[in-house]
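Dear colleagues,

For the upcoming journal club I promised to circulate an example of a predicted protein-ligand complex. I picked one with pyridoxal-5'-phosphate because it came up in last month's discussion. The inputs are reproduced below in full, followed by the predicted structure.
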Amino acid sequence: MDLFTSAHSLVRAHAPTSPATCLRPHAAARAARYFRDKFPGDVLYAVKSNPRIEILDAVHCAGINRFDVASIVETRLVAERFPEARLSYMHPVKSREAIREAYFGCGVRDFALDSPEELAKIEAATDGARDLTLLVRLAVPNDHAEFDLSAKFGIAPARASALLQRCRAVADKVGVCLHVGSQCMHPASFATAIDLVGDVIRSSGVMLDIVNVGGGYPSHYGDMTPPPLDAYMGEISTALARVPIGEGCEIWTEPGRALVAEAASTLVRVDHRRDDHLFINDGTYGSLFDAGVPGFVYPVRAIRRQGGGSDRMMPFAFYGPTCDGMDYMKGPFPLPDDMAEGDYIEIGQTGAYGATMRTQFNGFYSDATAILSDVPMLSQFTEAVPPPQYDKSGTDQ
Ligand SMILES: Cc1ncc(COP(=O)(O)O)c(C=O)c1O
């Protein structure tokens, strides 16, 4: 895979005709080191947010040897890549075949569930194994998150006691897991959720071996500047101190977005301009899903092959390449007012839930990838990034 000091150098060297994923594994490593050093417990990487090998390797090299997997394909991928890693199957609804293969074929012992039916399924698919770690997924408010995950999964705290007691009877270890919703903009959401864990412990009388506070930590986008991650760490530690858990209780977290959002951007080319609308060659069926209906305003910068162009900025909306009218990203994306066909745009912060969402719809799939050594377009981490080391184009921006 080609290495460049910036998306600009990539454009100068190749003038790509298809959208390209620009990976910055060093940014994933930096974020991983933050969580490793600052979270008061164990960090699992939520593989779904970006399962690319380069990203998995960066996170792993930064000292994260635990992974939240949510499908059998993710489980196989990580088990093969890191045979010594611990995998936790945190999807609360799984097929019997997936549970069986994960347990017998990939060494998975940790399983999430949110219903008695799923517990029975796990018991049957593992032939009544007695070495399981079972985590009951609690439904918690997702009020401050951009993506609500509470309606689909989680047992209401009032019904969780009975399920926890049943898990205690068959499992080696028992825990509670939760998710405050993705891109959670308020640290207090973690405190609210952890307080609910405390209520469940008191009402069930079950001493927990694990409290898994989930993912949900935010990243920075063009229109979203969340509080510092340190505030989330502080809120979590303070709330945990109120919960009746023993000294031996493990605390887990499973971030996705905040670990990898900064670790990629998407390089697109303008195929057509109509007034303040740019028709670009990637879109909501490609790596820009979140810029569609979810309305994320990714940071953008114009890249001209020869440099130059207007200094005056104006807001643009984007259309993606497919025939579907929903392939629309309203932005507003601020770019020079003379943007025209053939210009390139680097769209930042697409490392989480970006390229991994790409579809083949309308034949517009692109797998073009480059590694960049420069800093991400936005960052919430302060550790210095190593200086650029390699540039295929031979010149710097
Ligand atoms: C069970 C579970 N854990 C962790 C994550 C990662 O969440 P985030 O990317 O918001 O940190 C998700 C995301 O859907 C999830 O469902």
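Two points we might discuss: The chain has two domains: 3-22+262-372, 26-260. The longest helix spans residues 188-204.

See you all on Thursday,
B. R.
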